[in-house]
Specification:
about 280 residues; 6-stranded mixed beta sheet; globular; binds guanosine-5'-diphosphate; binds magnesium ion
Amino acid sequence: MGNIKSQPEFENPWRKITWGKEKKDNLIQGIKGIEPYKKELKCLRVLLVGPSGSGKSSFINSVNNAFKGRITCSALSDRIGGKSFTVEYKPFEIESGNSSLNVVFNDVMGLESAHNQGCPVEDIIKAIHGHVRPGHVFNAEKPLSPEDADYVKQPTISDQVFCLVYVLAADRIQFAEESVLEKIRYIRLQVKSLALPQVMVLTNVDQACPLVKADLQRIYNSKKIKQKMEWCSNAVGVPMCHIFPVKNYHEEIDTDDDMDVLILQALTQIIQVANDNAKNRSSKS
Ligand SMILES: Nc1nc2c(ncn2[C@@H]2O[C@H](COP(=O)(O)OP(=O)(O)O)[C@@H](O)[C@H]2O)c(=O)[nH]1
Ligand SMILES: [Mg+2]
């Protein structure tokens, strides 16, 4: 084998990226400058799905940290005995200062490998259409039915989901059981008619690659991270340009401009495609 192939790094980053405070500030300004396509759209609802422990709550906190410039923990991120906290359909607002466009994240654990664990896949589809009332506690064995009090019969535009974000942990993805991937494929099929944009956030990049752990700026030099992203793209069907590797805040006590750059790049894409989708869907209805 040639030496070049066995190198763990590409000489040049395969995705162009600028780092540091200036870039972070530009991204924040860019996000604040995204205009909602119409005034009635008070918030853009984004649904985060992934297995328990994949970093969904940490991603919500990380986005908050990036905007606030300090460590926050509004979305409780912890697990007890490997079971995720999040069984309630709870919205988390991301306030970007005086921006007119607020993003609301809903976090559900729905991609557990076992059939009857996490939120039922049917309920994820209902949430996307806006039928799940905030505060609803998902029951793995009993999907929400139109007769239930938590079923929203006539969802407004602000109840609906305009972007689906799969959150997967880079250090575990290849061990993901086929049933998790099957659930993702099922969701993709069900939401095809909405042309719902789907973005993937690949967390735990520090755990997946020692080079990245040592220096986050090497993320797009790491062959390992690129391979993980390609694997996800093939397994799930999300194109590479919609996959964003991030390192979430988990043990830091201060924010870090480079971590924020990756987090805010993912968020920019999420908001832009969600806003486009809201526009397209309303012009059809
Ligand atoms: N090293 C590292 N740990 C992370 C990262 N993201 C999340 N974690 C940790 O992984 C665990 C599960 O994360 P959590 O956000 O609660 O997952 P959730 O169940 O999907 O909401 C927590 O202990 C986090 O601190 C990351 O990017 N890097
Ligand atoms: Mg959680």
